[in-house]
């Protein structure tokens, strides 16, 4: 089944150097893009423009703001947002494969280069590559605001689109990106981790992902580990808790392993210092994107029902 799903996949078409430069750009030129700050709106406009340039249909949704788990007055300047860019599938347009990351920064940081400009860049790179190839399912690239407020943007979106069933489509799989690139093979202190959920689908998801990572792609277990758990707190969690199968790709096992997590020096230069140079970061970043590309296209040729039979 896995061989059928991966056979004949088009190779990824992308410019790694250009995507690393894109990450540097959004990290350094939009400082302090916390929710409701002017640079948050500027970055949102940049993302919309870049996604439209890929030929995707782009929608921006707004939701009532929230701070410390409390709703704030519904007035201009307090909203939180979700950017949804889609490419309609060829044979299953009402079924979606989602990609998610968050573009807001935490109040104690400035650039948020690793948390989460790196995840935004990984998602954007993957979205750009997948937009160039036919897919049976609709591709949905979602960039959330309000993650640092408590996953608020994704919570509101999932409530509307999935829990309440207000949308005429279903999500079959969601891939999440938050803090990516400081990982094998460039930064050998940390593996690349693939986290899975919800619990009932873990056997199918781990079997599928392990076959891709260690079989199709030939990554060593010393460098890439598929986990039978999802214990990180980012936007894919809301999809998982609504019953949607998820993979979370991450560089580093725990967020706090990164020494500038939610701290002022989460900068491009510091990421390069940790990685041991730009080339090492680029190598880890490339592994995240290329592994995700192969996983996304393989899943697009199968279904969770087939995976449950094959690996469950």
Q: Which class of secondary structure composition applies to the elements?
A: alpha/beta
CATH structural class: Alpha Beta
The beta-strand count equals 10
Q: Going across the major beta sheet, what is the strand order?
A: 1-4-6-5-7-10-8-9
CATH architecture: 3-Layer(aba) Sandwich
- Mean pLDDT equals 95
CATH superfamily: Zn peptidases
* Cα shape: globular
Number of helices: 10
**How much of the residues is beta strand, in percent?**
15-25%
**Rg, nearest Å:** 18 Å
What level of helicity do the residues show? 40-55%
| End-to-end distance | 13 Å
Q: List SSEs in N-to-C order.
A: HHHEEEEEHEHEEHEHEHHH
Biggest sheet character: 8 strands, mixed
Count of discrete structural domains: 1
Write the CATH fold name: Aminopeptidase
Structure report:
The chain has helices at 2-6, 16-29, 38-53, 113-130, 152-163, 202-216, 236-241, 268-275, 278-300, 304-311, and strands spanning 57-63, 66-67, 70-71, 80-87, 92-102, 137-144, 170-177, 192-197, 224-226, 246-251. The chain is 40% helix and 20% strand. It has 312 residues and is of the alpha/beta class. The longest helix has 23 residues, at 278-300. Strands 1-4-6-5-7-10-8-9 form an 8-stranded mixed sheet, sandwiched between helices. Strands 2-3 form a two-stranded antiparallel ribbon. The chain has a single domain (2-311), classed as 3-Layer(aba) Sandwich (Aminopeptidase).
């Amino acid at each position: 089944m896995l061989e059928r799903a991966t056979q004949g996949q088009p190779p990824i078409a992308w410019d790694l150097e250009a995507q690393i430069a894109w990450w540097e750009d959004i990290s350094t030129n939009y400082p302090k893009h916390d929710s409701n700050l002017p640079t948050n709106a500027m970055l949102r406009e940049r993302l919309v423009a870049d996604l439209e340039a890929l030929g995707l249909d782009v929608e921006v949704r707004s939701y009532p703001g929230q701070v410390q788990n409390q709703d704030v007055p519904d007035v201009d300047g307090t909203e939180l947002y979700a950017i949804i860019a889609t490419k309609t599938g060829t044979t299953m347009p009402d079924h979606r494969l989602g990609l998610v990351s968050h573009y807001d920064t935490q109040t104690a940081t400035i650039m948020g280069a690793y948390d989460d400009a790196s995840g935004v860049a990984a998602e954007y790179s993957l979205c750009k590559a997948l937009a160039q190839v036919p897919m049976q399912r609709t591709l949905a690239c979602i960039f959330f605001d309000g993650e640092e407020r408590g996953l608020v943007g994704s919570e509101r979106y999932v409530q509307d689109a999935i829990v309440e069933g207000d949308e005429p489509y279903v999500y079959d799989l969601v891939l999440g990106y938050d803090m990516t690139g400081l990982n094998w093979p460039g930064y050998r202190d940390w593996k690349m981790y693939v986290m899975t959920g919800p619990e009932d689908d873990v056997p199918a998801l781990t079997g599928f992902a392990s076959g891709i990572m260690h079989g199709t792609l030939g990554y060593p277990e010393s460098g890439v580990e598929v986990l039978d758990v999802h214990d990180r707190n980012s936007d894919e969690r809301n999809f998982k808790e609504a019953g949607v199968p998820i993979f979370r790709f991450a560089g580093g096992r725990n967020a706090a392993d990164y020494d500038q997590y939610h701290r002022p020096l989460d900068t491009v230069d510091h990421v390069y210092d940790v990685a041991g140079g730009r080339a090492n970061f680029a190598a880890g970043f490339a592994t995240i994107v290329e592994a995700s590309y192969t996983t996304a296209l393989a899943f697009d040729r199968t279904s969770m029902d087939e995976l449950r039979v094959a690996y469950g």
